[in-house]
Please model this.
Amino acid sequence: MILNRKLDNLRLYKIIVSFILGIISFIGIFYSIRIEFSGTSINFALSLILPMLIALSWGWKYGFLSISMGLVFLYPFILGPYNGWASLVPSITLFIWIGLHGWGSLSRKKNRTIWNNIYILQLIYIVIKLLLYLLLFQPLLKLDIPFWYNNVMENLGLDIIMIFAIKGIIVDSILIAICESILLMPFIRKLFKLKIYRGAKYNTPVLLGIVAFGMIFTFLIISFNNLFINNIDVWTWIKNIDESTILTLSLSLLLFIVMAGITVRYLQKNQESSIILEKRNRQYLQVIEKINKMNEELESKVDERTSALKQAIKEMNEFSFGVSHDLKSPIRAIDAYSIMLLEDNPKIDSKSKEMIENIKNHCSGMIKLIDKILEYSKLSNKEIEIESIDIFEIIEELIIQYKIANPARKLEFKLIGERLTILGDKILIKDAISNIISNAIKYTRNREVGEINIEISVYEKENIISIKDNGIGFDIKHKDKIFNIFQRLHNNEDYEGTGIGLTLAKKIINKHNGRINITSNKGKWTKVELIFPKTNNTVAYNKGLNEDDI
Model:
């Protein structure tokens, strides 16, 4: 309801303003600039600016309203009664001029194209106006219908008609440029309820300043010309100013208005660009401020979380050592009591002795398990000491150690591939490889010959240490479980162990940005691959180790 009332008020305002400006334009016709040429007069009806302003602001309907209700369309009959009915031609072209530019104004508000550009439309209008003057002016001039002016010319040369047409085209084109300039001024836009751009702040003083400066300059030039060339006193010249001077000043005024419009339009665009840039800069600074604030908050949260994490790790370590001590003490006590029972009671029967030995073995296994758990918990906090590691040297040392530790076993090791140097923590890498080889030795226990093949491969992006045994293997569907802590696929009675060795190996390899992969064929073989990121320094090497190498 309120919106409809506002729209109705706006329409009423446009109608009233269109009518008033139409009347003012009609009155202004009587004060048009007139130039005598070959016995006829050429008139410059500058007041046509007003209905054109209406059309450019509100569209062709209000433009038509202004020239019809204000009687502006009669201006050719008033200024050129000697043209008789030929005055219909400029009257018709007035409607075309107003209508074409009014349509263009409405069209540009929706979408700007080359066809609704104000100067393209003016060019179209020029063509139409020339055709109408060439086709209609002479026939209408000769039309034998009574006219209120008795001295109607019966014939005009084509050259005079073309002068009329070209004069009208020049004047209309100048008026369009002037209208564009005038509509750049904020107070004019406010009158027509148009959007006032932020960059238009200085439009009015700049435009008026340029026009004032131009007119003063023109006036001084004419004054000097009259004073020094024509020897006419300035006051005498001003009192008896002639039509040529008025024409010169009038045309100069129009020229400087057009020039001022061009300058102001450029200034406005520049100012708008500066405003947009300033706005973007403010937004940028606000974003930077928000980012800095978020960074500060994030850093504060990170510090809090880091402090909390360090405290949690410290408490976990203290807990681990505490649990280790609390668990080991009673287990060691049980082990000590078992030894005392065996030493103080030499007459214990064989069955009881076997049971006590089992207790001792379980205590020893439990202590080893606790040590492994501690080793696993410490690994997360351990800092890696980077050094150059000769993988072949480590593997050769481990092979010799395990052969010495298993004298009753027939073990056959084969080490092939390229001599490889990697970067990492030597102690941790050796521990990881040791766990894998230890498992290979353990799970080949039931083989007559334990075959353990170790191959080192160097590729473009990674190095692979492959350890394959001919042990009992496992069902590959349990592959994901095998790296979980305490997860074992075999009974403790058949194969001793804590269930932590592979988990430790995987964690060590991960700390070196590597990965571990395991494949197996149940009852036949198991293959473990330790995969490291590529490093340099590889030397061709191929060597097999067996019992004779010890």
The beta strands are 33-37, 40-44, 387-390, 411-424, 450-458, 462-469, 515-521, 525-533, 538-540.
